Amino acid sequence: MMREIIPAEELLHKARAVGQYYGFTPLITLTAKKRGAERATGIPESLTGLALDPVAETIASFLRQYRNTERASAPRTPLFLWHTNITPGRPAQKRATVQFHAIGTDRALADAVIIRALIALTRDLYHEEPVVRINSMGDKETRARYARELANYFKKRANALPEECVERAKCDALAAAELVIATECADDLPAPTEHLSDASRKRFEDLLDYLEMTETPYELAKNLISRGNIWNDTCFEVIVGGRRVAWGSRYNDLAKHFFPSSPFSATGAVLQIASEGMATIKAKPARLRYSFVHIGDEAKRLSIKLAEDFRKAHIPLTQDIGIESLTEQLNLAERRESPYLLIMGRKEALEGSAILRNRATQEETILPLTGLAERLKSFA
Questions:
Q1: SS3 of residue 169 by DSSP
Q2: Which of 30, 56, 107, 145 could cysteine-pair with 69, CB 3.0–4.6 Å?
Q3: C-alpha dihedral over 313, 319, 324, 327, to 10 degrees?
Q4: What are phi and psi of 56, to 5 degrees?
C-alpha cells in the first residue's frame, strides 16, 4: 500500500542524500546578499496577470529566494540546486515539497540528472518503482504551431467532443486540450512532438538518448502537456501507485520574469508529499572523502548510473554531473577539501575504469568500475 504521510526527518535526510550523490547543492547554503545590498522581494508584477499552476507557484517562490543570493544572475557555469520547505527545528508543513533545479544550461543532460534524482528519491520514500512519463511541448515556434493544430482539431471534432471542451477551445486551445485529456476522450488528440522545431526536436532526442544509455525507465506520453506561457520544451511527471507525485519541465519563460536583464535556461521539478513531525537540527556534515570528476558524454552517462551504487554503499562521495568543465569540477573539489579525487575521462569510460588520486601524495591508482563502490570503502 502506498505511503500517504512521510516523517519530515526521513524526507529531509533522503532528499539531502540524493542531492549529494547527484550533484545538487542545497539552496540554503548559497551565501545571501551582503547586508545593505538591495533585496528583491515578492513576485514580479509581470507575473500578476498570469494564472500559475501550483507547481509554477512553488518554482516562482524558489526563484524569488534564489534572486536574493550572491549567485543570482545568469550563472557562468551551470548551477544545480535542491530545495525543500522543511526547516529543521520547526514542525513540518502539511504539504512538504522537495525541488531539484538546473540553472544556466540548456543541455538535455540537466533534465536527465533531475529525472534520475527524482526516481532515486521516490523509490526511497515510497518503496515502489515509480513510472516516469515524458513529453516535449517545444519552444515558442513549436507551441504556436501546435496551438493552430489544436484549434483545427476542435473545429473538425466539434460534434464528437464534449461541448465544454469545444467552447473552451475558442479562447484557449491548450486549456481545452487539458480538459479533453481529463475527460479521457483524447485518443486522437494531436501530439506536440509532431510539430517540434529542429532545435526542440534535437534537445528532446538528446534527452531520450541519455535516458536510454543510462537505462533509465520512462514512457512517452503524448497526452502530457503544459501551458506555454510558463513552461517550455521537455515536461515530465513521476507516478507512484497510479498518482502523480512529481512534475517537472523547462521553465525559461518563467525565469525571464525574475531575471529580465540576464535570462538563462532553467529546468526544475517539484515533488509534493504529505509530511508530519519535525526534522532535527544536525551538526555540520563531515567532510566528504571523495570528489568524483568526469569529462565527456561517456563518462557523464556512467557517472549517472554509478551514483546509485555509491549511494547504496554509503560512500562519502559527491560529484557535479551537470558541469562539463573539468577545471570547474576540480575547483569545486578543491573547495570541499576531499582527500581523494575519482577521475574519469573518455578513455577511462571506454575502458571501464577510473583513476583514484590521493590529493596529499598525488599517488594514483587505476580502479575497475566493476565493484568500484566496495573498493572505495577500503580507502575511506
A1: helix
A2: 30
A3: -130
A4: -65, -40
Exposed, middle or buried by CB within 10 Å (0-12, 13-18, 19+), for 35? exposed
| DSSP character at residue 92 | P
Could you read off the pLDDT tens digit of each residue along the chain, which spans 380 residues?
678 889 999 999 999 999 999 999 999 988 766 555 556 667 787 787 777 888 999 999 999 999 888 777 767 788 999 999 998 888 888 889 999 999 999 999 999 999 999 999 999 999 999 999 999 999 888 888 888 998 899 888 888 888 888 888 888 888 888 888 888 777 788 889 998 999 999 999 999 999 999 999 999 998 898 876 789 999 999 999 999 999 999 999 899 989 888 888 999 999 999 888 888 866 566 679 999 999 999 999 999 999 999 999 999 999 999 888 899 999 999 988 999 999 999 999 999 999 999 999 999 999 999 999 999 988 76
Least Cα distance to 243 among 131, 85, 373 occurs for 131
Cell numbers describing residue 129: 518503482
Helix axis angle for 108-126 and 297-312, nearest 10°, is 10
Would you report the helix, strand and coil content of the chain in percent, each value rounded to 5?
Answer: 40, 20, 40
Distance CA 311, CA 329 (A): 20
Query: What are the sequence ranges of the domains in the chain?
Result: 5-138+197-276, 141-191, 290-377
124, 18 contact by CB (below 8 A): yes
Q: Report DSSP state, residue 27.
A: G
Instruction: Please tell me what DSSP assigns to residue 48.
Output: T
Cβ atoms of residues 288 and 311 within 8 Å = no
Residue 207 CB partners (closer than 8 Å, separation 6+):
108, 111, 112, 134, 234
Q: Could you please state the CATH topology (level 3) that the domain comprising 5-138+197-276 is classified under.
A: BirA Bifunctional Protein; domain 2 (3.30.930)
Looking at the domain that runs over 290-377, which CATH code has it been given?
A: 3.40.50.800
220 grid coordinates: 512517452
Query: How far apart (Å, rounded) are the C-alpha atoms in residues 378 and 374?
Result: 7
Phi, psi angles (nearest 5°) of residue 251: -135, 45
Spatial CA neighbour of 58 closest among 111, 100, 19: 100
For 184-330, strand residue ranges (E) read 219-220, 232-240, 243-250, 266-276, 290-294, 317-319
pTM of the model: 0.92
Give which of 24, 55, 15 is closest to 248, Cα–Cα: 55
